[in-house]
Design a protein that fits this description.
Chain lengths: ~280, ~230
C-alpha cells in the first residue's frame, strides 16, 4: 500500500538528485536511451513512498520507458517528476517527462553546443596555442559550471512541480537568450576563423621588368598571397570554411567533409600551391 | 573505472586536458598543449545531439601527442589525432549498442522484484563506455612505437610533409563550418562581419571579441524587448 501523505525526506531528495546528475547516462543505449538512468535515480524516492518491495519495483518499471534529454534540462524534469510522485500523481509524473524532454533538450543543447562549448574551446585553444596553462581552467570551469548547475535545476523543478510546464513553454526569455548567444558566438567565430586557420598561398610568379633608368631586365618574384591580402586579408580560410559550410548544408556527412578537405589540402600542399 | 567515468563528467573529458595529461606522461607538456589546442578546434562543431556519435578527438589528442613526441611533427600528430578520433567513433557505436543488454538486465531485475540487481545493471552500463575506449587505446598504445617507420618514411619526402602541413591547417575549418551550420546565419550574419573586421584589421584578440560579442548580444536583446513593448 502506498503511504498516504508521505513527505519525502531531505536525504531522499539529495540522493535522487545526485544519482540523476551523476549517472543518468551511464547505461545510455539506442533502445530507450536514458530510461534506466531515470529509473535508477527514482529508487530512493520510491523506497520512501511505498512500503513493500513489489510496489517499489512496479513503480520503477513505469520509469523504464523511452527517455532522452539534455542532462541539465533533465535535472529540471527529474525535480518536477519527484514532486509529482510525492503527491502520488503517477500519470502526471509519466506525462511530464514526455512533455518536457523535447523542449528542455533543445534549450540545454543550445546552451551547451552553441554558447558554452564553442566559446570556452575557442578562448582556451587561443591561450593554449600561445603556450599558456591558463587555457586549462578556461576550458574546464565553464563545463564544470554546467555540470554543477544540475543541482539547482533539480531544486527548481521540484519546487515548481507541475507549474514548471508554464515556466518553460510560455517563456520568451529563453528565445532572447538564444538570440544573444548566437550574436556572441558569431562575433567570436567571425574573428576566430581567420585567426586560427593559417592557410596561405605559397605560389609565387616571376615577372621580367625592364628598369627604365638602366635599361636592364630584372626578374621580380611576386608572392600571390600579398596580392590576396591586399584585396581581403585572410581570404583563403574564409573561402575554405564557406566551402565546408556549403557541403554540410548539402547534407554531406561531416566525416566525409573531413575526408574531402584532407584530400584537397594534401594535394594542394604537396604541389606547393598552399602552405 | 567508475571513478574515471565520473571524472569525465565535470568538464575533464575534452581534447585539451587529454593532450596535456599525455604530454605529462611523455615528458613534454608543451607538445600536449599544442596538439590539444588544435584538437579542441577540430572538435568544436561536434556535439552529441540526441546521443549521436561524433569523432572522439579526446582519445585522438592522446595519440596525436605521442606521435608529435615521436616524429617531432605537429602535423603528423594532428593527422593521427583525426584518424584515431574517427576510428574511435566506430567503437563508440559498439559501446552504445551493448548497453542495451544491461538495460534488459535491469528490466528483468525489476520483473523479479530485485532492486539491488537493477541498480547493479544500471551501474554496469559504464562497461560499454569504458571498454569502447579502453580496448582501442590499449591496442593502439601497443603498436604506436611502430609509427616511427611512417615518420622516417615521411621525413624523406618534402612534398608529403607540405601536404600534411596544409591538412593540419585546413581541418579546423570543418569544425567551424559545423558550428556555423546550426547557427542562425540568415538573421545574424552581420555580426560575423563585425568579428572578422575586428580581427583582420584591428587585431583584437579572442577575449576582446567575446567581450564585444556579449555587449552586442545584450544591446540587441534589450532593443528587441523595447520594440515588443
Amino acid at each position: 500500500m502506498a503511504r498516504t501523505n508521505a513527505k519525502l525526506s531531505e536525504q531522499a531528495l539529495k540522493k535522487a538528485a545526485s544519482r540523476h546528475n551523476w549517472t543518468l547516462q551511464w547505461c545510455w543505449n539506442y533502445e530507450r536511451m536514458q530510461a534506466s538512468g531515470f529509473a535508477y535515480a527514482m529508487v530512493p524516492i520510491m523506497k520512501e513512498l511505498y512500503d513493500n518491495n513489489d510496489e517499489v519495483c512496479e513503480n520503477l518499471e513505469r520509469h523504464m520507458q523511452f527517455y532522452n534529454c539534455h542532462p541539465g534540462g533533465s535535472a529540471v524534469i527529474m525535480g518536477a517528476a519527484v514532486a509529482l510522485e510525492e503527491g502520488y500523481e503517477t500519470d502526471m509524473s509519466d506525462s511530464i517527462k514526455v512533455a518536457l524532454m523535447g523542449p528542455l533538450a533543445g534549450i540545454g543543447d543550445t546552451i551547451q553546443a552553441v554558447l558554452v562549448k564553442p566559446i570556452a574551446y575557442i578562448i582556451a585553444a587561443g591561450l593554449a596555442a600561445d603556450g599558456s596553462f591558463l587555457s586549462l581552467p578556461v576550458i574546464i570551469l565553464p563545463l564544470l559550471a554546467l555540470f554543477l548547475a544540475r543541482w539547482p535545476l533539480f531544486k527548481w523543478g521540484y519546487k515548481r512541480s507541475v507549474a514548471i510546464l508554464e515556466d518553460i513553454e510560455g517563456n520568451t526569455d529563453f528565445n532572447t537568450l538564444r538570440k544573444a548567444a548566437q550574436i556572441l558566438g558569431l562575433t567570436v567565430v567571425g574573428g576566430f576563423v581567420p585567426s586560427m586557420i593559417g592557410l596561405a598561398l605559397k605560389y609565387t610568379y616571376a615577372r621580367s621588368l625592364t628598369d627604365p633608368t638602366t635599361g636592364e631586365t630584372v626578374v621580380k618574384t611576386v608572392a600571390l598571397q600579398d596580392t590576396l591580402d591586399g584585396i581581403l586579408p585572410k581570404l583563403l580560410p574564409i573561402v575554405l570554411v564557406a566551402f565546408c559550410y556549403w557541403l554540410l548544408k548539402k547534407k554531406v556527412n561531416p566525416v566525409r567533409v573531413i575526408l574531402i578537405v584532407a584530400v584537397i589540402a594534401f594535394v594542394l600542399g604537396a604541389l606547393g600551391i598552399l602552405g | 573505472m567508475i571513478i574515471f567515468t565520473a571524472l569525465s563528467m565535470g568538464g575533464i573529458y575534452n581534447p585539451l586536458i587529454f593532450g596535456v595529461v599525455t604530454g605529462l606522461v611523455v615528458g613534454d607538456v608543451k607538445l600536449g598543449l599544442e596538439v590539444g589546442a588544435t584538437a579542441a578546434l577540430l572538435d568544436i562543431g561536434f556535439y552529441t545531439y540526441g546521443g549521436a556519435t561524433t569523432p572522439d578527438y579526446n582519445i585522438g589528442a592522446m595519440f596525436g601527442t605521442v606521435v608529435y613526441k615521436q616524429s617531432g611533427s605537429l602535423e603528423q600528430g594532428l593527422l593521427v589525432a583525426t584518424v584515431v578520433g574517427l576510428l574511435i567513433s566506430w567503437f563508440d557505436i559498439f559501446g552504445r549498442g551493448v548497453t542495451t543488454v544491461f538495460q534488459h538486465g535491469g528490466d528483468r531485475a525489476l520483473a523479479n522484484k530485485d532492486i539491488k540487481a537493477f541498480e547493479r545493471w544500471h551501474l554496469l552500463g559504464t562497461m560499454g563506455w569504458f571498454w569502447s575506449r579502453f580496448i582501442p587505446v590499449f591496442i593502439g598504445m601497443l603498436f604506436i612505437d611502430k609509427y616511427q617507420v611512417i615518420a622516417d618514411f615521411i621525413a624523406n619526402y618534402a612534398w608529403i610533409k607540405n601536404g600534411l602541413v596544409v591538412i593540419g591547417k585546413a581541418l579546423p575549418a570543418v569544425g567551424f563550418a559545423l558550428l556555423l551550420s546550426y547557427m542562425d546565419i540568415k538573421h545574424f550574419w552581420p555580426f560575423m562581419l563585425v568579428g572578422y573586421a575586428l580581427f583582420a584589421y584591428m587585431n583584437v584578440p579572442t577575449i576582446g571579441l567575446a567581450i564585444i560579442g556579449i555587449a552586442l548580444g545584450y544591446l540587441f536583446t534589450v532593443f528587441m524587448k523595447k520594440q515588443e513593448a
